[in-house]
Amino acid sequence: ERLEHIDEIVVQDLDFSYGESHVLSNINFRLAKGNILGIHGRSGSGKSTLLKLLMRFYDPQQGEIRINGINLKAINTQNLRDNMAYITQQTYIFNESIYENIIMANRNASKEQVINAAKQASIHEFIMSLPNGYETKVTELGNSLSDGEKQRIGIARAFLHNAPIILLDEPTSNLDSLNEAIILQSLLNAKAEKLIILVSHRTSTMAICDHIIKIENGRMS
Ligand code: ATP
Ligand code: MG
Question: Could you give the ipTM of this predicted complex?
């Protein structure tokens, strides 16, 4: 099946192991459009794994994930992922221009939309300070982008992708509080039309969430 007008994600009685190693037990939540769900928990508690299950990189051994009532297994995987913008803990930067590194998330975007996404991700001013602005090649910078700059380029991609579901895995871990605040405000501005899941250790990031779940030893607590 194909997804249209996504309104809700439900995770029900989900259990997941990597082979013998049990990671998640009895996870349950419902996320409706217009809301931000925060997930926190210690390193290794299974937060990134949960996002990967939502993108169907793996299937749960028990329980199910449904979008608009449709089991993930019944949804065309490409269609599922087209509806998701995903920001990982590591942003991969290609040896191309900065512009190319952002527009790759949505080839149909206009220049104005690229710039707007960069502004939402608090990276526009930095880009304008580069010798050739958006046309600066990453190689010209000696591949010297900082982790926080890379992370913000990843976030600009996610905004440009314009998917109804946004999954963010520690999106602000390398950012100072000013850049973080700008990005969190951009998420708040976008959230009415989105379903957002935000994984973070930071209380400042959790503050924008409508609901928060904590995972401890693979269980919700
Ligand atoms: P962090 O806060 O450090 O990012 P996390 O909560 O995102 O941690 P996960 O990456 O989901 O944690 O990992 C949960 C557990 O599953 C960890 O014990 C990890 O070592 C293990 N794990 C993760 N990926 C795999 C894999 N591909 N194969 C086997 N075990 C894995
Ligand atoms: Mg993780």
Answer: 0.98
